[in-house]
Structure formats: structure tokens, C-alpha cells
């Protein structure tokens, strides 16, 4: 089953777009693919951080 993707408008400064284009080219991705990669990675890291924070809270409350 194919995942449906939602399109949206992104306002971005020309300088940031140029940097994204360079970065994407270095990693053999489209700019869109690079943005998706960056967002996915950031969300994954955030989830890990939230879980770690929750675990630390649970430990502190148990003591």
C-alpha cells in the first residue's frame, strides 16, 4: 500500500534554500527528499528525548 503524501507551501529564505540544495546534492537527494529526511531524523531524536525525559521523571518520582 502506497503512503499518501500531503503537499504544503514552505516559505524559506533564498540563502537557506541554497544551503539545502547543496546539502541535498551532496547526499544524492532532491531538496524535498532532504527536507523529509531532516524532519524525520529530528522527530525520531525528539521521540527518544521525550522517552528518556519520561523515564527520568518516573525514576525521580519513585525515589
UniProtKB/TrEMBL annotation:
The UniProt transmembrane annotation reads: none
The processes (GO biological process) annotated in the record are: regulation of DNA-templated transcription
**Coiled-coil stretches, from where to where?**
none
* Domain CopG-like ribbon-helix-helix: residue ranges: 17-47
Name this protein carries in UniProt:
CopG-like ribbon-helix-helix domain-containing protein
What organism does the UniProt record list as the source?
Arsenicibacter rosenii
Please spell out the taxonomic lineage of the organism that makes this protein. Bacteria, Pseudomonadati, Bacteroidota, Cytophagia, Cytophagales
Amino acid at each position: 500500500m502506497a503512503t499518501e503524501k500531503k503537499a504544503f507551501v514552505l516559505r524559506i529564505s533564498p540563502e537557506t534554500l541554497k544551503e539545502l540544495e547543496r546539502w541535498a546534492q551532496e547526499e544524492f537527494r532532491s531538496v524535498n527528499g532532504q527536507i523529509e529526511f531532516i524532519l524525520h531524523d529530528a522527530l525520531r531524536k525528539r521521540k527518544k528525548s521525550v522517552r528518556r525525559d519520561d523515564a527520568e521523571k518516573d525514576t525521580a518520582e519513585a525515589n
